[in-house]
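To illustrate the input format used throughout this study, we show a single complete record. The first block contains the structure-token representation of the backbone; no residue identities are included at this stage. The design step must infer an amino acid for every position from geometry alone.
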């Protein structure tokens, strides 16, 4: 279960620490622009993100969500759920095409490539990845995340060995940077809302791919802690190096450039990959939401959205986003209050459902294991538990069986064996199983 929790947590962190975090610009605007007080803002943001992460991922798991609106409908009044749905859809598309544009700018700054080439490379990567299932997409997102962790850790350690004099002076210099929201505590909360409204759709989908409520919740907690540590290290690093990076569009890249040109070269690709993380999260979740009632249309709709996003990415929206981001942040805060409130009110249901699913998983694993007895009594108990679930029993059984099958396939590959389809048994060509 620990491996599953870590995978969930890294995917969650990967969605949150996207391109804006990787460049360092959002960290300066929302935190460091308030000097030392910004570090207190980091603490507030970390607590909120850890709590919200556990709640959102567990909500996705509870409802086996395949898109965000199905969850919103369950926890809010139709008018409110529809409003949040529209806000999330608009956010997904806007940030999606901004990421495509950002990819072009990133490669242009470092290598001098025309922006349309960098954006096209990102488009191809996103379009290809989006054709995979949600488990593979979340695996890719979680696999990319450690690169940013290493980059932030490297910059943090470098800073510790090269601490400047006069922290008060640095704080005053940092306060010359502009922030879209003030005071410092509201800026921190607004940043939470912005990050979560960007990541809520894909986070619910990732949670929905795991029927284990405990694993989803703990994955969110672990992800929140990792996020807090990363944010604290990035904020401290940028504050201590504010003289080098003040006024830059890509502060973290400027910092690595001051360390060594090779480090800047490597950081360029890490930022590109974090842009990719954000872009795939946006377009994949958007495609799933738009085709929720017609899932078979997902592929053409998803590819069409990517193509439209690429076309729109040639229009400059930087100034617009300065005004849009704070609004999205406040909408995100309202969404977090709604989701956390409903989760807190329904804690008893979550606890009972978690225990029920644990028993369903045990019985399903027993049914798939040829070396264990599974008779009429066990089948009756399994049917009763599925019928008593808060969601559709057939969907839950399919989800649990699929997870067991994936787990069994992984174990077989590790041991060098193969399973027969749907039997949970090893295939032995020398044995006739008929009769």
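Output of the design step:
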């Amino acid at each position: 279960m620990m491996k599953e929790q870590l995978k969930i947590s890294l995917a969650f962190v990967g969605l949150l620490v996207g391109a804006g975090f990787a460049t360092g610009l959002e960290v300066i605007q929302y935190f460091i622009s308030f000097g030392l007080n910004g570090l207190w803002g980091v603490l507030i943001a970390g607590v909120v993100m850890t709590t919200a992460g556990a709640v959102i991922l567990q909500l996705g798991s509870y409802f086996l969500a395949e898109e965000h609106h199905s969850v919103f409908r369950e926890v809010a009044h139709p008018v409110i759920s529809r409003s949040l749905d529209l806000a999330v859809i608009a956010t997904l598309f806007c940030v999606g095409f901004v990421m495509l544009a950002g990819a072009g700018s990133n490669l242009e700054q470092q290598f001098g490539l025309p922006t349309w080439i960098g954006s096209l490379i990102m488009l191809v990567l996103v379009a290809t990845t989006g054709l995979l299932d949600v488990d593979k997409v979340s695996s890719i997102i979680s696999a990319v995340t450690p690169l940013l962790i290493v980059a932030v850790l490297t910059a943090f350690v470098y800073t510790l060995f090269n601490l400047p004099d006069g922290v008060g002076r640095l704080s005053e210099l940092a306060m010359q940077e502009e922030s879209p929201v003030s005071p410092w505590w509201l800026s921190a909360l607004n940043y939470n809302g912005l990050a979560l409204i960007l990541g809520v759709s894909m986070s619910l989908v990732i949670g929905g791919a795991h029927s284990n409520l405990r694993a989803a919740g703990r994955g969110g907690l672990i992800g929140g802690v990792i996020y807090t540590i990363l944010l604290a290290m990035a904020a401290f690093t940028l504050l201590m190096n504010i003289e080098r990076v003040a006024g830059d569009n890509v502060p973290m890249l400027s910092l690595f450039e001051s360390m060594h040109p090779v480090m800047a070269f490597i950081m360029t690709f890490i930022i590109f990959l974090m842009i990719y993380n954000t872009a795939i999260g946006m377009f994949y979740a958007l495609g799933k939401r738009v085709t929720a009632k017609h899932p078979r249309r997902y592929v053409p709709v998803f590819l069409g959205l990517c193509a439209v996003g690429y076309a729109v990415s040639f229009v400059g929206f930087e100034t617009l986003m300065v005004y849009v981001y704070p609004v999205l942040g406040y909408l995100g805060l309202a969404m977090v209050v709604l989701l956390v409130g409903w989760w807190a009110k329904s804690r008893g249901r979550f606890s009972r459902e978690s225990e029920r699913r644990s028993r369903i998983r045990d019985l399903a694993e027993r049914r798939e294991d040829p070396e264990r007895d599974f008779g009429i009594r066990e089948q009756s108990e399994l049917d009763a538990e599925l019928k008593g679930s808060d969601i559709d029993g057939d969907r839950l059984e399919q989800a649990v069986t699929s997870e067991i099958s994936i787990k069994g396939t992984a174990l077989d590959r590790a041991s060098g064996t193969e399973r027969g389809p749907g039997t949970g048994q090893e295939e032995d060509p020398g044995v006739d199983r008929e009769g």
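Structural context for interpreting the output: The CA atoms of residues 64 and 209 lie 6 Å apart. The chain has two domains: 2-344, 350-415.
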